[in-house]
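Bump. Still looking for Ribonuclease 3 C-alpha coordinates.
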Amino acid sequence: MFKQLQQDLEADHHIHFNNIKLLEEALTQANYINEHPGYTGNDYQRLEFLGDAVMQQSTAVYLFKRFPNWDEGRLTELRISMVQTRAFAALSRELHLDRYVQLGRGEELSGARNRDSLLEDLWEAFIGALFLDQGQDTVMRFLEDIMFVKIDEGFYDQFIDYKSKLQEYLQRDGSVKITYTKLDEQPVSNNEQIFTVQVAVDSEPLATGTGKSTKDAEKMAARKAYQSLMND
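Sorry for the wait, here they are.
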Protein backbone atom coordinates (compact mmCIF):
# COMPACT_ATOMS: atom_id res chain seq x y z
CA MET A 1 0.00 0.00 0.00
CA PHE A 2 2.69 2.48 0.96
CA LYS A 3 4.76 1.54 -2.08
CA GLN A 4 1.93 2.85 -4.24
CA LEU A 5 1.93 6.13 -2.31
CA GLN A 6 5.70 6.25 -2.74
CA GLN A 7 5.26 5.87 -6.50
CA ASP A 8 2.61 8.60 -6.57
CA LEU A 9 4.87 10.98 -4.64
CA GLU A 10 7.73 10.30 -7.02
CA ALA A 11 5.58 10.83 -10.10
CA ASP A 12 3.79 13.95 -8.91
CA HIS A 13 6.31 15.66 -6.62
CA HIS A 14 9.70 13.97 -7.18
CA ILE A 15 9.71 12.80 -3.56
CA HIS A 16 11.28 9.42 -2.76
CA PHE A 17 11.42 8.31 0.87
CA ASN A 18 14.69 6.60 1.73
CA ASN A 19 13.02 5.06 4.79
CA ILE A 20 9.51 4.04 3.79
CA LYS A 21 8.85 3.01 7.42
CA LEU A 22 8.69 6.72 8.26
CA LEU A 23 5.97 7.16 5.65
CA GLU A 24 4.05 4.23 7.12
CA GLU A 25 4.41 5.62 10.65
CA ALA A 26 3.06 8.99 9.50
CA LEU A 27 -0.11 7.27 8.29
CA THR A 28 -0.81 4.88 11.16
CA GLN A 29 -3.28 5.76 13.90
CA ALA A 30 -2.92 4.50 17.47
CA ASN A 31 -6.26 2.67 17.33
CA TYR A 32 -5.01 0.61 14.41
CA ILE A 33 -2.01 -0.54 16.45
CA ASN A 34 -4.21 -1.36 19.43
CA GLU A 35 -6.31 -3.64 17.25
CA HIS A 36 -3.27 -5.36 15.71
CA PRO A 37 -1.14 -6.71 18.60
CA GLY A 38 1.51 -8.06 16.23
CA TYR A 39 2.10 -4.69 14.59
CA THR A 40 5.61 -3.47 15.40
CA GLY A 41 5.48 0.07 14.09
CA ASN A 42 4.62 3.35 15.80
CA ASP A 43 1.63 5.65 15.42
CA TYR A 44 1.88 9.12 13.89
CA GLN A 45 1.68 11.23 17.05
CA ARG A 46 5.38 11.94 17.53
CA LEU A 47 5.80 12.77 13.84
CA GLU A 48 2.76 15.04 14.07
CA PHE A 49 4.44 16.94 16.92
CA LEU A 50 7.57 17.42 14.84
CA GLY A 51 5.68 18.27 11.66
CA ASP A 52 3.66 20.97 13.39
CA ALA A 53 6.88 22.74 14.42
CA VAL A 54 8.41 22.31 10.96
CA MET A 55 5.30 23.74 9.29
CA GLN A 56 5.17 26.78 11.56
CA GLN A 57 8.83 27.59 10.97
CA SER A 58 8.85 26.85 7.24
CA THR A 59 5.79 28.97 6.57
CA ALA A 60 7.07 31.87 8.68
CA VAL A 61 10.46 31.84 6.92
CA TYR A 62 8.86 31.69 3.48
CA LEU A 63 6.47 34.57 4.15
CA PHE A 64 9.21 36.66 5.78
CA LYS A 65 11.35 36.35 2.64
CA ARG A 66 8.52 36.52 0.12
CA PHE A 67 6.93 39.73 1.45
CA PRO A 68 9.74 42.01 2.69
CA ASN A 69 7.45 45.06 2.84
CA TRP A 70 4.71 43.48 4.93
CA ASP A 71 4.44 44.28 8.62
CA GLU A 72 4.10 41.66 11.36
CA GLY A 73 0.31 41.90 11.37
CA ARG A 74 -0.15 41.03 7.70
CA LEU A 75 2.43 38.24 7.86
CA THR A 76 0.71 36.75 10.89
CA GLU A 77 -2.73 36.96 9.29
CA LEU A 78 -1.65 35.05 6.19
CA ARG A 79 0.35 32.50 8.19
CA ILE A 80 -2.65 31.75 10.39
CA SER A 81 -4.86 31.17 7.35
CA MET A 82 -2.26 28.76 5.92
CA VAL A 83 -1.33 26.66 8.97
CA GLN A 84 -4.78 25.67 10.17
CA THR A 85 -7.07 22.66 10.06
CA ARG A 86 -9.01 23.17 6.85
CA ALA A 87 -5.93 24.16 4.83
CA PHE A 88 -3.95 21.13 6.01
CA ALA A 89 -6.93 18.84 5.44
CA ALA A 90 -7.20 20.07 1.85
CA LEU A 91 -3.49 19.40 1.29
CA SER A 92 -3.87 15.90 2.76
CA ARG A 93 -6.65 15.16 0.30
CA GLU A 94 -4.56 16.52 -2.55
CA LEU A 95 -1.85 13.99 -1.66
CA HIS A 96 -4.55 11.29 -1.11
CA LEU A 97 -3.30 10.64 2.42
CA ASP A 98 -6.91 9.91 3.36
CA ARG A 99 -6.76 6.81 1.14
CA TYR A 100 -3.68 5.37 2.79
CA VAL A 101 -4.12 6.03 6.52
CA GLN A 102 -4.36 2.90 8.68
CA LEU A 103 -7.32 3.33 11.04
CA GLY A 104 -8.94 1.28 13.76
CA ARG A 105 -12.31 -0.25 12.91
CA GLY A 106 -14.24 2.13 15.13
CA GLU A 107 -12.60 5.17 13.58
CA GLU A 108 -13.23 3.81 10.11
CA LEU A 109 -16.92 3.28 10.84
CA SER A 110 -17.25 6.76 12.34
CA GLY A 111 -16.00 8.39 9.14
CA ALA A 112 -12.64 9.51 10.51
CA ARG A 113 -11.03 9.03 7.09
CA ASN A 114 -12.87 12.15 5.93
CA ARG A 115 -12.53 14.13 9.16
CA ASP A 116 -10.61 17.41 8.78
CA SER A 117 -9.00 17.12 12.23
CA LEU A 118 -7.51 13.72 11.36
CA LEU A 119 -6.36 14.88 7.94
CA GLU A 120 -4.64 17.84 9.59
CA ASP A 121 -2.76 15.43 11.85
CA LEU A 122 -1.75 13.29 8.86
CA TRP A 123 -0.40 16.29 6.98
CA GLU A 124 1.75 17.37 9.92
CA ALA A 125 2.95 13.79 10.48
CA PHE A 126 3.82 13.47 6.79
CA ILE A 127 5.86 16.69 6.92
CA GLY A 128 7.61 15.45 10.07
CA ALA A 129 8.47 12.18 8.31
CA LEU A 130 9.74 14.01 5.23
CA PHE A 131 11.88 16.28 7.40
CA LEU A 132 13.50 13.33 9.17
CA ASP A 133 14.03 11.44 5.94
CA GLN A 134 15.41 14.21 3.73
CA GLY A 135 15.86 17.42 5.67
CA GLN A 136 14.63 21.00 5.60
CA ASP A 137 15.68 21.84 2.04
CA THR A 138 13.53 19.07 0.58
CA VAL A 139 10.63 20.08 2.81
CA MET A 140 10.85 23.68 1.58
CA ARG A 141 10.99 22.63 -2.08
CA PHE A 142 7.98 20.38 -1.55
CA LEU A 143 5.99 23.09 0.25
CA GLU A 144 6.77 25.60 -2.47
CA ASP A 145 5.45 23.12 -5.03
CA ILE A 146 2.20 22.14 -3.29
CA MET A 147 1.42 24.72 -0.61
CA PHE A 148 3.08 28.11 -1.07
CA VAL A 149 2.09 28.30 -4.74
CA LYS A 150 -1.53 28.49 -3.59
CA ILE A 151 -0.97 31.96 -2.12
CA ASP A 152 -1.07 33.55 -5.58
CA GLU A 153 -4.13 31.46 -6.47
CA GLY A 154 -6.08 33.01 -3.59
CA PHE A 155 -6.60 29.57 -2.04
CA TYR A 156 -6.17 30.75 1.55
CA ASP A 157 -8.62 33.66 1.23
CA GLN A 158 -11.46 31.24 1.95
CA PHE A 159 -10.11 30.73 5.47
CA ILE A 160 -10.06 34.45 6.36
CA ASP A 161 -13.18 36.23 7.65
CA TYR A 162 -12.70 39.44 5.69
CA LYS A 163 -16.00 40.95 6.81
CA SER A 164 -14.84 40.81 10.42
CA LYS A 165 -11.36 42.03 9.47
CA LEU A 166 -12.83 44.97 7.59
CA GLN A 167 -15.15 45.86 10.46
CA GLU A 168 -12.31 45.74 12.99
CA TYR A 169 -10.15 47.98 10.82
CA LEU A 170 -12.84 50.55 10.03
CA GLN A 171 -13.99 50.77 13.66
CA ARG A 172 -10.52 51.00 15.18
CA ASP A 173 -11.09 54.68 16.02
CA GLY A 174 -14.80 54.50 16.79
CA SER A 175 -18.14 53.37 15.49
CA VAL A 176 -18.92 53.69 11.77
CA LYS A 177 -21.81 52.47 9.62
CA ILE A 178 -20.82 49.63 7.28
CA THR A 179 -23.38 48.61 4.66
CA TYR A 180 -23.54 45.92 1.98
CA THR A 181 -25.86 46.76 -0.92
CA LYS A 182 -26.85 44.44 -3.75
CA LEU A 183 -26.26 46.27 -7.03
CA ASP A 184 -27.03 43.61 -9.59
CA GLU A 185 -28.25 40.06 -10.10
CA GLN A 186 -27.60 38.33 -13.43
CA PRO A 187 -28.51 34.78 -14.52
CA VAL A 188 -25.60 32.77 -15.95
CA SER A 189 -27.43 29.45 -16.40
CA ASN A 190 -30.77 27.82 -15.60
CA ASN A 191 -29.80 27.26 -11.97
CA GLU A 192 -27.12 29.86 -11.27
CA GLN A 193 -26.96 33.61 -10.85
CA ILE A 194 -24.16 36.08 -10.27
CA PHE A 195 -24.71 38.75 -7.64
CA THR A 196 -22.86 42.05 -7.36
CA VAL A 197 -22.61 43.73 -3.96
CA GLN A 198 -21.05 47.02 -2.89
CA VAL A 199 -19.59 47.63 0.56
CA ALA A 200 -19.58 51.19 1.91
CA VAL A 201 -18.59 52.93 5.12
CA ASP A 202 -20.72 55.90 6.20
CA SER A 203 -22.22 55.88 2.66
CA GLU A 204 -18.75 56.10 1.07
CA PRO A 205 -18.25 53.20 -1.41
CA LEU A 206 -15.17 51.08 -0.78
CA ALA A 207 -15.36 48.12 -3.18
CA THR A 208 -17.66 45.80 -5.09
CA GLY A 209 -17.64 42.04 -5.23
CA THR A 210 -19.36 39.29 -7.16
CA GLY A 211 -20.42 35.78 -6.22
CA LYS A 212 -22.94 33.00 -6.76
CA SER A 213 -24.86 34.24 -3.71
CA THR A 214 -25.22 37.58 -1.97
CA LYS A 215 -23.17 36.17 0.90
CA ASP A 216 -20.30 35.23 -1.41
CA ALA A 217 -20.49 38.62 -3.10
CA GLU A 218 -20.34 40.37 0.28
CA LYS A 219 -17.27 38.34 1.23
CA MET A 220 -15.56 39.26 -2.04
CA ALA A 221 -16.39 42.95 -1.60
CA ALA A 222 -15.05 42.89 1.97
CA ARG A 223 -11.85 41.15 0.85
CA LYS A 224 -11.21 43.69 -1.91
CA ALA A 225 -11.93 46.61 0.42
CA TYR A 226 -9.75 45.28 3.22
CA GLN A 227 -6.83 44.44 0.96
CA SER A 228 -7.07 47.82 -0.75
CA LEU A 229 -6.99 49.62 2.60
CA MET A 230 -4.03 47.52 3.71
CA ASN A 231 -2.12 48.28 0.51
CA ASP A 232 -2.81 52.00 0.93
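The first helix runs from residue 2 to 13.

Edit: fixed formatting.
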